[in-house]
Amino acid sequence: MEMDSQGGMERQVDFVERLYRNHYYGAWLRTGASLFMWAFAFGAYRLQLIKYNNIAGISASVLFLILMNPVILWILRRPKSNRASNLFSLVTNLIEVIAYTAIIYFLGGIRAFWMSPIYVVLINYIGIVGQKKTPFIVATFCGVVAVLMVSMEYVGILPCQDPIPNLFLPGHYQATIVITVAVYLQIVALVSAYIGALLRKSRRKLREKNTELENSNRKLALAGQVLEEAHQELEMRVEERTADLVKTNKKLEAEIKDRKRMEEALRASEDKLVRSKKMESLGLLAGGVAHDLNNILSGIVSYPELLLMDLPPDSNLREPLSTIKDSGYRAAAVIQDLLTIARGVATTKEPVNLNNLIRNYLNSPEFRKLEQLHSSVTFKTDLDTELLNIIGSHVHVRKVVMNLVINAAEAVDSGGNVTISTMNRYIDKPIAGYDDVTIGEYAVLAVSDDGSGISPDDLSRIFEPFYTKKIMGLSGTGLGLAVVWNVVQDHRGYIDVTSDKNGTTIESYFQITRDEMLDEGLFQPIDDLMGRGETILVIDDEKNQREISSRILNRLGYISKAVSSGEEAVEYLKENFVDLLLLDMIMDPGINCHETYERIVKIHPSQKALIVSGFAETDKVKGTQKLGAGEYLKKPLTLERLGLAVKRELGK
């Protein structure tokens, strides 16, 4: 039904699609026209203008026109070729002509040809959408069908459908009507073909224009695509450049952070170096005098102890001698403070209970003197009854308690409260001032005051040696908190300081131990320390120290021999045998204790020995102990400590 001069150039699917679309719209038009004619005929039947057989024939024709629509559309969906589809479309139009002619015929025979405009509508529709020769074919077919219908009615083959049979038209009238209708239809076909040609021409121009527009659109789309690709490439380059800049910026930030960390680390190293130099200088100072002072103090401590053993209980000399002995201990404690600051103190760590240590200090003469000095200060305690023991040096931890209490009392000298408390605490995160801590259980010693607090500038320096806001020599030496810091560090603990306008709290963390605490302050009976005449060789370069050690050993029932150098000891032992050596760590001039003992064990491989000194437990001492030497005793010696050590070593 549809194939213009340009149709052969189109793809089959496009042609079939247009043909199907035209018949789809034609089906709706055909259905509407058929129903209109049926409604018109039904009205005429109700007015008794036509008979029943007339309305029956019209109904059958209308039903045929409606039912043919789905069949036509179904067939057009399955064409074999464009030519076959076009031929089927034409046949469909011719069948439609026959059906419309049947409607006209059943409506009133020859007299009903006033309804020939139905043909006109069909011819015009075909002329607009079909080929230019199709309207003439349909018009001619309409005329042929009309002639056949009239002729068959005229000769009697078809029954006359004229509702007024008495008004029968003669043959020449009927021929005139048919010829007039046929000519009229040809004129309509001519006009329809002309209009269709114009429409096809316009459509072709529109199609060409549309093709040009599509080409232009494609070019624009291509240009847009190129532009989009260029835009994307530009964005990609911008993103890459931005990423590079971000990466460079992050690298610069990382370098700046690294540089800041390095600068901070350098400052920290410089601070540590300055402090190290301070400690080194102090260590040299303490080390230079420790040996001589300890030897001097040995006489002050040891001789009163020996004299007290020989005096009767009611002697008037007991109290002065006890005072001399206590003074010697306090002098030794001062030296130990210096050695603690220098981190060179020799400490023996054992289970210690902070609560017992605090109670011992609060009952000591030192604390009573502190209370008298700061009479306006109220001292309170809050001690955990289930406090766990720590592993540490009784003497040095006691110094921590004493120095913290003194520092807190001086902070509230005009009146206030100082609270000493203990508690168990589990640490699983860093403490202020430490990058890392050992996770575990700790016993905490906390000393608090309600003074005015410590300024931020001072807070960062309070543990430095000799740093004090008090008047040096009158109310402080600047060593108290430095001793606290070094003792806690030496015990692998931590210190946490919090301070504001309402007061200051210093918490010291000590690692706990599950070991039972040794009996403190238990007096060792002199009979348990007595020897059985074993021979002990005292090796010391100081005559005074040799005499003190010999007197203590003789008092305990041992036979003492003494030499002044390591060389003399080696020569003596080449010819003699002793049960035990009491070996001084440093002897000047001459060989030291390590070399002395190393030579002696070559002579007597199982020779027992004790090492004595006031210095730190150095690698030389540990090396000597690896060779077989026993305990390390720090000066000044006491009868009980020396007696216990000798007993333990001889009992091995």
Task: List the SSEs and their pairings.
Layout: H1 12-46, H2 52-76, H3 82-108, H4 117-129, H5 134-155, H6 171-310, H7 318-341, E1 350-352, H8 354-362, H9 365-373, E2 377-382, E3 390-392, H10 394-411, E4 416-427, E5 440-449, H11 456-459, H12 480-490, E6 494-500, E7 503-511, H13 526-529, E8 535-539, H14 543-555, E9 559-563, H15 566-575, E10 580-584, H16 593-603, E11 609-613, H17 619-626, E12 632-634, H18 639-650
Helix pairs in contact: 1-2, 1-3, 2-3, 3-5, 4-5, 4-6, 5-6, 6-7, 6-14, 7-12, 8-10, 10-12, 15-16, 16-17
Q: Helix and strand string, N-terminal first?
A: HHHHHHHEHHEEHEEHHEEHEHEHEHEHEH
Q: List low-confidence stretches.
A: 1-10, 471-475
Described by the principal axes of the CA atoms, the overall outline is rod-shaped
Major sheet: size, sense and barrel closure? 5 strands, mixed
The number of helices is 18
Strand proportion: 5-15%
- Strand tally is 12
Mean pLDDT: 77
Task: Determine the N-to-C terminus distance.
Answer: 129 Å
Evaluate the radius of gyration: 64 Å
Helix and strand content put the structural class at: alpha/beta
Q: How is the largest sheet built, in terms of strand order?
A: 2-4-5-7-6
| Helix percent band | 55-70%
